[in-house]
User: Fold these one by one.
Assistant:
Number 1:
Amino acid sequence: MQLLLEQLTNGLTIGSFYALVAMGYSMVYGVMKLINFAHGDFFTLGSYLGYTILVIGSGWVTRTFGLWGGIALAILGAMLGLALGGLLVERVAYRPVYKAGRLPLVVSALGASIFISNGIMAVWGPRFQAYPQTGIPSGTLRLFGEIYIPDIKLVTLLVSLTLMAVIYFIVEKTLFGAAVRATALDRETATLMGINFRSIILFVFSVGPALGALAGVFAGLNYSRIIFNMGWGYGLKAFTATIIGGIGNIPGAMVGGLLLGLLESLFEGFVSGAWKNVFVFLILIVILIVRPTGLIGEKVAEKV
Amino acid sequence: MLGANGAGKTTLLKVISGLVPIKSGVVRLMGQDLSKYLPHQLAALGMAHIPEGRRVFATLTVEENLNLGTWGVRHKLSERQIRETKEWIFTLFPILRERRKQLAGTLSGGEQQMLAIGRGLISKPKILLLDEPSLGLAPILVQEIFRVIRQIHEEEKVSILLVEQNARKALSIANYGYILETGKIAIQGTAAELRENEHVKAAYLGGTRLRNR
């Protein structure tokens, strides 16, 4: 029972990272039909920015603003930095090759990915870095007498799920969200409605990376150790989550991410830790064979 | 505007609304050179383009589709104006009110055409570009759509540039017509003149024998 509950919270935590990163993949894919390979590296870069904010001046931020104040600043700083970083990458790596078609765009995305992860290695070094213990809350919450949940996990879940709910609301319930979805469906007709494609691009390339950065900071706070190439693994898992939910579908990415995290943790806890990645990618293969449009795929077929 | 397949009718509409870049010449709307504007800014100038094949946003609801029609003019029209226009569209096409919560992709072809027209009208355009509204619709629906097109023109004083394959129907409601042949205007005149033109009769109205049937 205890193991089950622990693995469920672990699964939800890591699932929320996958979900946040997956939302970024899905947003960009929806609007540009581009699998943004650099997205996993946005996650890493966000994690390193949060790390830097927490270690600068040997914990000055934490000393000045308190434990939670420091964490809030690390998160906000990383998200803001990556919102700008995402726009910069779009400007430098993608916009010049839009007209060249999809393949050059994919190659450019791979290039951007390699550039960012190597840039991180050049700046912060090739070895593991650790989030400072003084910047991470060590308290735990005791539930039902025998279950201990670290405070940081609760905060991770609370903040991630709240932010997902906000994004869900914006995308599914507002007119702006309808404009984003319309652009994803049919860019030309969206233009006829007066929707500026550029402003939709700005939205997906700032919000997507910022969500990835949030996940990156939380990953650092939960697991402490970060490394320059960790975005690859997280990115691949998050991409799997995107496929599970149905690519281009933002609620699908949330559901896919949380589901994948849960399945992975339960498998790790009850079957085998060593085989968990095999299991995860087996899910991907099965979904691709059985339901390539994802669990929450296209709701209706388009009539012509 | 009439013309055979490939005559350039749809291309001309896309040039007017900025989707296809202009090679030579000028497009003016009420004296303004449109090349100064980006395509998404034209809705605010009073242009609505209802594209060929309806192009409704299939996974959005009917209501979301209609609301998106106001996107380009959302800073120009008040909430109340938009609400009133929407009411008017619902009186033109009562079925849209019934189906407002439904996904647009679940509508029939005729209903999708009504939605596409409503989505164009909700921005209160001064000029409406209408591309083949009768395409693929049952005759009774074609009748209905053409009645509404006429009504929009007469009641709301919207100028309409209608592209049609159904020449007979189009000339029955139009004031003025152009015949486009391989990218050039071959014949133009009032609808009555075109109906009597021998070339138009032979090539577009199915010849005299058919006409007398």
Number 2:
Amino acid sequence: MGEVLEIDRIRCDGHGLCAELLPELISLDDWGYPIIKPGKVPPSVVEHARRAVDACPVLALRLARTAAAVAR
Amino acid sequence: MELIARAAGAESLAAHLQRLGPMPALPSGALIAELEASGLLGRGGAGFPVGRKWRAVAERAAGGAVVLANGAEGEPLSLKDRSLMAARPHLVIDGALLAARAVGANDIIFYVGGEHATAQAALRQALAERPGDVRRRTRIVTAPAGYVSGEESAAVHYVNAGDARPTTTPPRPFERGVGGRPTLVQNVESLALAALIARRGHAWYQGLGHGRARGIGLLTVSGAVNRAGVHEIELGATLSDAAAAAGGLRGDVRAVLLGGYFGGWADLHEQWGLPLDAPSMRARGLALGCGVVHFLASGTCGVEATAQLMTYLASQSARQCGPCVFGLSAIAGAAQRLAAQSAQPGDLDRIIRWSRQVTGRGACHHPDGAAALMQSALQVFADDFVGHQHRRCLTISQPARVAVA
């Protein structure tokens, strides 16, 4: 079991805090919207990922168990 | 012809029953099994197996599901759904009634594009010919104009809240749809085919088709052909057969748009023998989509045609997700500059990068479809795009390409 980052694209307003807190997995496009590296969140950065999720001003980012992500 | 009528006007209930006989009273499980065995794939664009979709809803329904017959047909190059509803409304209604019985639904919604006036009138008239218990369970909802209105989560959102924009999934409509209930959203052509399979059995459907492809389907053929319009084919017929069905090519043709604005460009000479059916096309990186086949005359610049398509698709964004709102309009803008021979340095490179980046970054698949179309153009019209980056149109500067047959 692992976790993946999921983003609600409708909610996301491109504040960009996630990319600052988690540059290992998140970069920004030319308009400031996040590009998430595909795949599971490596254990070494899970704590940073949690911080990025908590910091999102519009609650668009979340950590989900991989099973749910696969079903989608 | 099973799905399109040669006679003008809508088929009456009497004519429909005389031609096909009464609807069979198959139990739910048997009907879904027939559909699964038939191999019928959805005709709205995604090509998902119809039987499997019905089963997914039936398993969750507990008698309270909803069937949404999707006739929004917002694809500008597609006419097949409105033609089918206008010609054979009772076949579509049969399909929706069978679906309702199979998945355990009481309510049936016909979601029909507001601009398809003839189709809507035919359905309304056909429903008036049906008994009261059918009329009470069915209603017609007018879909607002727009490319994204027919996307399944957008259709459900519109029925629920009057807002035809896609929603974040999951939950998908089969889990939680109209009124929060499991909802089967199914394209009207798929429903009509299901109604035929229910009457004749899966073996009948399996007996149609060319090569490894099975079944029949509708195409909308347009562009440089002599007789544009809706044509019924046995799946697996080739691109060359489609051109012949539309009265042959008009003049010299170089490229073809397959699957519509959500599909992609293909080189005509490479794909002349292409079998038109979803699995064969997918294997070649192409898509049957909703059955659009548009032939581009050699005298028409592919860069310009693509810029027009991208401009349209950017304008049709539901404007909810940043990568779609900004990415598509940036791609369209750069494509317009390239087309107008006023490219800025790096425009082509940016289009290549952006069309990779927007994929998979919307709530619905609108940006993915637009990006795939752009990427197919970059392949098929590769030389033209390079020419246009240097403000030079090859279609004009190489008159040999414009030769008329």
Number 3:
Amino acid sequence: MKSRSRLLLSGNQAVARGAMESGVSIATSYPGTPCTEILESLSTYGTVQAMWSTNEKVAYEVALGAAFAGARSLVAMKHVGLNVAADPLFSSVYTGINGGLVVVVGDDPSAHSSQNEQDSRHYARAAKLPMLEPSDSQEAKDFVAHAFDLSEQFDTPVLLRLTTRLCHSKTVVEIGSPPAEKPKATGFVPDFDKFVLLPRQAILRHTVIENRLEAMAEYGDRSPLNRIELRDRELGIITSGVPYCYAREAFPDASVLKLAQTFPLPVELIREFASKVKRILVIEELDPFLEEQIRALGIEVDGKNWLPRVGELTPERILHSVQKKAPQPQEKGDMAIAGRVPRICAGCQYLGVYTAIARLGVRVAGDIGCYTLGALEPWNAIDSVVCMGASISTALGMEKALGEEAHGKILAIIGDGTLLHSGIAPLIDLVHNGGRCTVLIMDNSTTAMTGLQGHAGNGKTAQGETGRGINIEKLLEAIGLTWVKVANPYDLEATEALLREALAYPGPSVVISRAPCLFLKPKKLVQQAHLKTEACTSWGECFKDGCVAMERQDLGEGKIGPKINLDLCVGCTLCVQTCPEDALAPQAVTPELLEIREWKIPQPNSPLRL
Amino acid sequence: MEDTATKLPVTALIVGMGGQGVVLAGDTLAEAAMLSGLNVKKSEIHGLSRRFGSVSCQVRFGEELYSPLRGHGAVNVLLAMEGYEGIKHLPFLHSDGIALFNRLWSKPGALTPAEVTAPAAVRDQRIGWTEGTVLTHQAECPRSLNFFMLGVLSTRLTIDAGAWHEALENILSAASREVNTEMFAAGRRSAMPIHVRTPAGPFSTRAPNRASHIRFRLEESTSESAPITNEV
């Protein structure tokens, strides 16, 4: 690509670019929408050591260690990932840093791809660290540089809070130059009272933090990033992040206090603004985080009395709410049209596994990954999904509460990536506390849901190099699990039989359903399902594998039959195995068809290199 | 809209199903607008939509604009790769907006027997229908539907051909550039009010590879293709 100074970058790409230009040398992350692409972009820069960590807590600690050693480091995660990393987050504010440390968190208003809609800004207040919120990609890039300076100036990690709309929106960015030479760590300087958090030191450090916050609030009053835009003084808007953009569209004539540093708040600047405008409206997504703090200063404001607390805003939603003086519900499409439910890929191992599980009549504790889709039609095979790694531990809790009658009726489902993220400790607990439930590990050798990132299980690094993968069977053996068997998910009968055997076993048991994700290792197309139409009279009765390649066709006279979409069918034969009438058969593909199919296989997009 | 494109920002909403290339089409439009010297903001929702979920993206461009996203009644151009997705997003379209729909109906929730009937909105006079699915299948490259539709859309925007061309060069990988550029051109031709003459076949000067084959087929088919209609 030609070298250009103006680029259209997503918020994620802009954060990566800003970090690289600021001389970051260590970057860590765990994949999660909306900010997976930050580390993916960073891994393309030669000056940065970018690593996918085992989970967010580990990622945070690795970045912190690098900062101790005097390197500039960055750690990125989605909002629920920050819950996992909360322990080191709180205490690292006590230790402070050496090289700059920027913590990037991506919230997901409207929960587009998440299990909750939490407002992570509360972490800044709870953990007492400064927070910056950019409004577009240019600011995302610039604020990273600013955050590193702030981090080093005030000896604290700095939180950079993004939202899905910022992460996944592309706006024009003027880029700068990469560092002249590869950045180096300045070295670790021992400081017992700072880096060793024993109780006495912790108390001393707490005083340091409180003083630091006061200094930071004063800094915010003079910071050029926080700015007052005076226009019509009838209405003044206090806002930050992407809602600033919405506010400017909704009320183009209003005066605005645009806050970049949203914790600690620049108190004097807010008072100054309040003295210049007649009435104030606080526009923010999710919780009244700014509103409550501003009101605590004794300033009258409107905010969540009109604006919604749930879901993303848009300029229209803000206007509607303010005009009606009542929160407008989320803007959706025409609800007369059914939603389009995400589906499991044609030929995925989960099609077979969920078909087998649906026949077992057990309670299933689910987890987070592609396999969460088993909770939907037609299987309805998952009874609970909470957070990463919760399947095994909640299954154990259910089993303990229900006692003997629950034996053989509780199954925990977890993927290989999630198992390594936070499923090992629950497995240890299962063995240690005498649990007897069955764990099904869905091993597709990758982190599929977020886009095939490598992990410790397959040994693939962020740069795509293959190292030594972890042997899951040996890991289970070391934990003390003795009944461990591997299933071939494309053999439906055998998988079902193995699961029944595992459930009947008197101790804890593990079944590993193993087949690589089809995107990771596309299979050579040798056969496809073939329909003997005349034989099928009972559409829907057999159809429990829910394959996207199986479509409905109208046979006339009110009859409906299946139709196989040969663009999608990969010939896994799971539909053949589920048909009660012998209406389907595998058929070898012709060379011509094969050629067309190869032409159609989508090329993965090459990661953006700048 | 064409007169005001450089003054007031234009908001385009592109919708479709996972796998139809909605996001890539949006990227190309955004790039073309940026290369025209305009400010651009593009936002997309895909997350859980992998594999046959709904995908949508908004591209806004103009001289002065702030929000990457607009809500109900604020979209100027709605481009739909599929009928139900298009109808579902009609509430976002401005009363004076235009909608360009590919004629393809893929029922949401095909697993359940519940029928989804197309509501009266399908006769909305703002909708223009185009035969993208048929034409891209005839050309043996149904995966290029997104670029075909983008070509259709390009005739309704004041972004010049040079910017589109450069955007396609920048966005497309070498492997898919030729076929998608061809389909973009085909979409553009099919939506133009004039017929395009069929030039002499390229076989005389080019090796008979797949791409040239597609070009030949396209020029045959688009020369007689119907322009956008309001017929449902």
Number 4:
Amino acid sequence: MSELTTTSTPAGTGPADGAGSSAAVSARGVTKTFKTRQGVVEALSNVDLEVAAGEFVALLGPSGCGKSTLMRVVADLERPTSGSVEVFGKSPARARRDQDYGIAFQQAGLLPWRTVARNVALPLELHGLSRPERKERVEYLLDLVGLSDFAGHHPDQLSGGMQQRVAIARALAEQPRLLLMDEPFGALDEMTRERMQAELARLSVETGAAVVFVTHSIPEGVFLADRVVVMSPRPGRIVGEVVTGIARDVPRDDALRQDPAFFARVTEVREVLHGSPVSSDGRELR
Amino acid sequence: MTQTQTQAVLDPAPTDATAVAASVDVRVPRLPGVLGWARAVVLAVLGLVALVGVWEGYKALAPEDGVVIGEQRVLPRTTDLAMPHVWDMVQRLGEPTTSMAGADPLWRSVADAALVSLGIAGVSWFVGTTVGLLLAVAMARLRVLEWGLLPWIILSQTIPLIAFAPVVRSWGSRIEIGGWDWPPWLSVAVIASYLAFFPVAVGALRGLQAHSRIHADLFHVYAAGWWSTLRRVRIPSAVPYLLPALRLGAASAVVGTVVAEVSTGYLDGIGRMLVSLAGQASGDPAKAWAPIFGAVALGLVAGGIVTVIGVLLRPYRRGEAR
């Protein structure tokens, strides 16, 4: 892995190969303000983001940096105050109606009265897939996330990690070319979290979907993503990005977690995040 | 094998530490087992025994004239006229209602009257629940309706039933559709439903607004319509709020039925019987208590029916705290 190339680029200039109509996400000058009792809060300030088809991008930053808001703008759950967003060359609202993306949140958000299988089938049911087609697709998806034996269980009978796997299966139900994930492993314990990361990496390769992955964990972002976009709060903006250079076909396993090149990228992201050099043992030099 | 063990065996990921914790904490409201039922029965019997004990104990220990402080009597007299023995009340239930030859035993008359009232209360509960649910859905659909309707719904409950009972009765008596006459019991049911709809409307509205943000986001992402969201998320999420509302509604329907029977002069129900036997209490004190027992039984049956509905809706109460 020592042949990994380090490419630290200034904000907003992602790889150009995904430009044009094939880009999964193309955000230009996105600004989002909220009116609160304390006055107007600028959650996003003039953000540019380009995500190529099939690319895995982590949005990383401390709480309040607008990373979730940016994802929600892409998902058409929020409207930008100004700027433009395109998802596969369409408006977010159109992309949403066309089910071009799947979504997962920090909480699994399963319907507690539905079985695992019926939870995964929910979007298919809403969009009029026939019963046999649904059954076939659900079987495939549950197999994909390793929960075939739990099809008839209810969410309260599953662990947090298993619930989140159901949520990911549901997000993948309609074969989206883009996955939007808002800290999906944030509520899980460390062991479960590492296993889920490996699983997500595998899924993203198998499905070929682009992923926008919101996280506040630096190792998580570096481990999973092709590119880590670093954001900073007040106002929420992109301060830089790090291309991890870890190819998609590199297995996301414990060997990678211990690879010096992985540590180098983690340090690099930390430097972008703090805006200052960091010594090799991870402490700031200041 | 217990469920926990099964889970551990089935779990393909034994390193998943939370799996064990989650499988222990299966938060489904369960049907009580044999032990649970036995405990409930024992507690109910103990409660009854305690009540009888307090009644008879006070009767035995307190002075004939009750407890008087200054000029004010703060606790009732203990004479057989004011407080008949419990066993006299029970015994009276088995004796004929009146001294007429061939009269039914008292318990039979009380049961007949209570059944008539139960039927009326049932109709009023059904009407009240339907109206309450429709109002709640309308208010959940349009904020303007909530602002416009909710104050009136609350205001409606400040008008005492007996104020408009005679009006409803006289309107009802004038209704005739085809050869069909508006029966007097229907007036009673309509008046009682006026009481029963209120908790359902308020509780259901609260429940319909209780679905989580994440579900709202998800259904927005799925581009699901309002009715589809209502059916698949909002109504199922409302069930835990709806059940207490239905129980309150059932209690209101029973109280409303009894009061409406009295205030419209309906003769066949338990309400009328309560009043007329209380009038005979000076001559037959134990007899006046029989319809009171009947009314209590009526309330218990109504509550029991809602409990059965709750059991049927158990799948939608998953995740409810035990």
